[in-house]
Amino acid sequence: MKSHAHVLSADQVLSIPSCGVQQERKVRIVVRTRLCRHCKRRVPFFRSLFKAVFCNRTHEREYVQNMETLALERLSIAAERLKLAMRQSMGKALADPPGAV
Ligand SMILES: [Zn+2]
Description:
Layout: E1 14-16, E2 21-23, H1 45-49, H2 57-95
Antiparallel strand pairs: 1-2
This protein binds zinc ion.
Residues 36, 38-39, 41, 54-55, 59 line the site of zinc ion.
C-alpha cells in the first residue's frame, strides 16, 4: 500500500473523506526567544515574530551609534599605526639609502 505524506499550512483544514468528518489541525508556531543585542534582555514576543533583534527602536538606534563610534575609533587607531609604520620605514630608508652596502 502506498502512503502519502501531506503537510498542512497554518490556514488549511484537514478533511478525512472516508468518514466525511472535518477536523481542524492545530499548527504550532515556534518563535525563538531572542536577547536584545543592546541590553541583553528578552525581545518582546510580538517583535520576535518578525525576527527583531532589539527590544525597541531606541536600543536599535543606540546600538548602531555605539557600533559607528567603535568603528571610527578602530579606524583612527589603524590610521595612527599606519602613519607610525610609514614614518619608521621613511626613517629607515633615509638611514640606509638604496645602493649603500
Ligand atoms: Zn534592549
